[in-house]
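debug: dumping io for the single-chain case to check the tokenizer round-trip. Nothing else runs in this session.
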Amino acid sequence: MFRSGLARTGPNGDRLAPLARGGAAVKLATFNINGIKARLEALPAWLDRARPDVVALQEIKSPDAAFPRTLFEDLGWQVETHGQKSFNGVALLSRMPLEDVTRGLPGDDSDEQARWIEATVIGEAGAVRLCGLYLPNGNPVGFDDAGQPEIGGKYGYKLDWMARMRARATELLATEEPVVLAGDYNIIPQAEDAARPEAWAKDALALPESRAAFRRLEHMGYYDAFRLREPGPGHYSFWDYQAGAWERGNGIRIDHLMLSPQAADLLRDAGIDRDARGGEKPSDHTPVWIDLAA
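debug: decoded output
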């Protein structure tokens, strides 16, 4: 991984090896599986087919003790979870060593929702800090008499959570290390990221305030990995189970991998594994992945 010859420190101040560009690639993916119990066959099948090195999972919908850790460990994966019963929950699966694992997004000790997990992925040539996230949906949104969204309730929580995420992203950016913020952002960044953008005009996923919060990450210096490789429309990562959205091609792109400049320097490829959505008992999301120079 690029940045050869520079002294480096990890998130806890530990010295890490310099990163160097090589011929191989490390494949990182994000995948909202919409319930680990419902995906006990589909997820291992996708892992075997796609062969990622590290996967950030969202919506595992399982407390840590109930996660089927042994199933994945027996397949050669290191498993780190941050779960809760029935809702939310994030996890990391890795074939590479994970160190300095932390759970929970800083900034609000009262927030009990399991939506954030971090770890340093250790490769032969260096390391990258990976954050797996499940950003709040934010719906329903109330509107005042002037048609403006009311910033409160679930929508207020979404925007507050994004402000906390930006604060943590700022801290990580200051390390000048490769950082990947991977997960279900519940944000449609622009009209081109929806098959029917007009249907989302008053949805928390596409409101101007939501998009502005996402843009702040980009203005800080984070890059939308998929858009670095594919600037055109018609690429989606989520199709609702309702109203034949998959069959009609009525999708949206809400799963993203945001890269620090140091991680963007390593980017070799990015894509959306669209076919996974059409498999047996699929999640309503499909995996999004990147290859980083290793």
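debug: round-trip ok. The chain has a mean pLDDT of 93.
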